[in-house]
Amino acid sequence: MRKRVFVFVAFFIVTSFLLSFAEQTTLKMEAEDTEGKYVVVEAQEASAGKYIGIDHTLDENNENNYYLIFKDMPATTAIKMVYGTGSVVGGEVKIYILEGEQEKEVGALAFESTGGWDPFGESMLVSVAEDLTIEEGSTIVMKATMSVNIDYFEFVVAESTNPKTSDTLEMIAASVMVVSCLVVFRKKHPLACIAR
Fold it and tell me: CA nearest 111: which of 94, 97, 132, 134?
């Protein structure tokens, strides 16, 4: 019986762990649908018929001339960017979380030269920033360190919040109690289960 109890509890723990990370989805967003300051280019081959261009130049106040803003973000763990750039060298699109008036860098989308500016067709490349921790409701800002054209983004998000550690422990404790009750009932001592 102890072996059965152990197998049941182990199965429950593994299942809970896998389910907590299984509920993920990918949300696509056209680059031209974001807020910020950028150049929009119409191109029939691009996703939704348009792509955008952002640069790394600064204005007279030493602020970025070009940037992207995403408000009310879902809980995000990774971001994919489809891009093209004719620059000789690559760069990064840095990702910041806006905390009050401060920007906290949480990741970057590194990109290399594609040999052409159009972010589709044979010159299309993909960059992915993984292991991000962007909480639901956050505002993020993106700024480039080199000129790049972007077709669209994909955000890997959790459809529902993953169970907290405390919640998982409570579920395990409840399962152990149920199994204990079954063991007691099997020995025909029902009152012992109620006492627990």
Answer: 94
pTM of the model: 0.69
Computed over every residue of the chain, the mean pLDDT equals 79
Instruction: Report the half-sphere exposure of 144 (CA within 13 A, side-chain side).
Output: 27
Half-sphere exposure of residue 178: CA atoms within 13 angstroms, side-chain side? 9
* Under 8 Å between Cβ of 159 and 171: no
pLDDT at 81: 96
Is-contact 166 120, C-beta < 8 A? no
Q: What is the pLDDT of residue 51?
A: 97
Q: Rounded to the nearest 5 degrees, what angle is found at the Cα of 129, between the Cα atoms of 151 and 44? A: 10
Mean pLDDT of 93-101: 94
CA–CA gap between residue 31 and residue 110 (Å, rounded):
17
Higher-scoring residue by pLDDT: 155, 181? 155
Q: Are 104 and 97 in contact (CB under 8 A)?
A: yes
- What whole-number distance in Å separates Cα of residue 39 and Cα of residue 193? 69
